[in-house]
Specification:
Blueprint: H1 4-33, H2 42-52, H3 59-69, H4 75-96, E1 106-107, E2 110-111, H5 113-116, H6 119-138, H7 146-160, H8 165-176, H9 184-209, H10 214-241, H11 244-247, H12 254-257, H13 262-266, H14 268-284, H15 294-303
Antiparallel strand pairs: 1-2
Helix pairs in contact: 1-3, 1-4, 1-15, 2-6, 3-4, 3-9, 4-6, 4-9, 7-9, 8-9, 9-10, 10-14, 14-15
Amino acid sequence: MSGAPAMEADAMEGLKAAMAEAASEVDEMLDALLPKEEGEERSLFAAMRYATMGGGKKLRAFLVLEGARQFGVARHSALRAAAAVEMLHGYSLVHDDLPAMDNDDLRRGKPTVHRAWDEATAILVGDALQTHAFATLAAPETHSDPAVRAELCLQLALASGARGMVGGQMLDMMAEKATAPLDEAAIGRLQMLKTGKLIEFSAEAGAILGRAAAGPRNCLTFYGREIGAAFQIADDLLDLTATAEEAGKATGKDAGAGKATLLGLLGPERARIQAERLVEQAKRHLDGFDERAGLLRALADHVIRRRN
């Protein structure tokens, strides 16, 4: 192996090491921020930790950290914001796995929260993680500027609420009962809301922390938007091709559940080509950044090559 392929392989190895190190740092921050397993509420606190720590790619947290690095943000500040995003993401997974939603038994290679505890605990875990995410962002320890903290809270709320992730989940549920299949535009909007908005915020958060100018901030936002769309296509391909052991969750469920996906509409090959186009567009948004954005460029490629 030589030339460009060797450089590409080196970039992927560097990304893998960087993501593993970042995941470990984020877990340490989550350990510090989440309530300890003590007191009368210890079962709730244990389940909150179970849902967020010691597993998962922590891709969204990595985006926060790498975006912040472009603007010289203090690592402690970036890690708190990254941990808040993981809390919010963890809440969404706990609720999505519930019997009333996707009814999944496995998440990140281990029983889902409602299986390891019970449904009521899972609902409360999601509620607690969501509110704790905003409490973390709003705390002075996250940033000295109250305007920055307020902007982080606002943008995360917009990304995760009724016109973001929650709205996308509702559209997903409605699509399963629709009498006619959704067209490409409708599926794209559903996936942008359900998955893409939180990834987009994760990419933008570092620029907010760094009080970046509108130009660089928009570039990171658009980068996040493109890889968010590519990520969902890759996720749908994994549901079709990966084993449960590889994915860490049940696979092959989307088609049987009548899920609206670009994969189902376009077919695997066209969907894969679309994801590759999105990745190239994402990397072009980083043209104004220097070599410090190398891991963000590698991450865009990784999004559509991963097996979990």
